[in-house]
Backbone:
């Protein structure tokens, strides 16, 4: 009976560009009367995901229902940032029916789930489930290893060797903690490649955890919410590298923002971005652009060499029309060269 009085919280995790924000937007558009509060964590200094959701135009999604935690990994700052935010939501005169937490693509989910076992929140909320969203085409392309074929060959020759990259470790952590996995962007995969992705994912899942297919993050709300996993009471079944290492940081990744002038045409900006992404191995690009002659703000999101763009809302009078992009990659990115190439 105790759990029925608790407000359920769903943690949505997944690698950079997997489609977490799209899944959340679809969830909000089909909430079926549920009052949902969002907690959004970003890696970097430009709150792109929060801004996209605040500009979504969904009637029941007001700005007060979207809480952003920027400039810090939510899995590393639970005491300072996350727990006070959850407590504030629970203390509202009219608390939400459900809390949805979008982690940054670089966050490990298990420390966040552990936070729900803290006395301050344990009696008032429960982790309904951890949803891991993955980019199906990215996994099919082997983006979680520097050279997947070489790694496979070396492991076959000597199983004691460990050649995992940071990207692979994140991928495994997010899958191992999941109560459900969403394989997103399946419309970009044929049956054979989709089957390979599903087989690869299945190797990292706990028993009885299911993987579902999706395009554009469209998953029925009844599938994502109501899992009743009580994940905070089930931590031991969720293996993690950090259980052995005892610490976690993001020294393997770097992020910075670039501000550019208005662009005359979106296509020209995308054509300038693509070779820079390819040359420097940029993992993720996201942000907004001002297009000359257009009153609306252009959203730009990309993983690897796949870029998406669309207009989401009008620029507000108090905003400066400009193009602001967040660049995310593994440590060692040549920031000066990237800035110069994009400014050119």
Residues:
């Amino acid at each position: 009976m105790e759990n029925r009085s608790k407000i359920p919280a769903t943690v949505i995790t997944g690698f950079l560009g997997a489609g977490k924000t799209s899944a959340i937007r679809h969830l909000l558009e089909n909430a079926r009367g549920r009052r949902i509060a969002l907690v959004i964590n970003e890696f970097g200094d430009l709150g792109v995901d929060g801004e996209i959701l605040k500009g979504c135009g969904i009637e029941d999604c007001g700005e007060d229902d979207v809480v952003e935690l920027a400039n810090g990994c939510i899995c590393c700052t639970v005491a300072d940032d996350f727990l006070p935010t959850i407590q504030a939501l629970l203390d509202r005169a009219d608390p939400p029916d459900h809390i949805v937490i979008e982690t940054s693509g670089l966050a490990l989910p298990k420390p966040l789930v552990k936070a729900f076992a803290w006395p301050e929140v344990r009696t008032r909320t429960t982790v309904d489930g951890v949803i891991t969203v993955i980019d199906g085409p990215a996994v099919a392309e082997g983006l979680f290893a520097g050279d997947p074929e070489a790694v496979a060959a070396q492991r076959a020759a000597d199983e004691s060797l460990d050649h995992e990259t940071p990207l692979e470790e994140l991928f495994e952590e997010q899958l191992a903690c999941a109560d459900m996995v969403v394989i997103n962007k399946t419309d970009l995969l044929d049956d054979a490649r989709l089957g390979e992705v599903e087989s690869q994912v299945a190797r990292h899942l706990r028993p009885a955890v299911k993987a579902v297919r999706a395009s554009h993050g469209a998953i029925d709300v009844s599938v994502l919410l109501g899992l009743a996993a009580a994940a905070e009471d089930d931590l031991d079944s969720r293996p993690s590298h950090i259980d052995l290492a005892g610490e976690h940081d993001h020294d393997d990744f770097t992020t910075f923002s670039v501000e550019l002038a208005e662009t005359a045409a979106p296509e020209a900006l995308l054509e300038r971005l693509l070779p820079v992404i390819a040359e420097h191995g940029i993992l993720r690009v996201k942000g907004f652009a001002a297009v000359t002659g257009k009153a609306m703000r252009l959203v730009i999101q990309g993983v690897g060499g796949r870029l998406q763009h669309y207009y989401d809302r009008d620029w507000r009078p108090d905003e400066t029309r400009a193009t602001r992009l967040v660049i995310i990659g593994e440590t060692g990115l040549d920031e000066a060269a990237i800035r110069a190439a994009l400014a050119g």
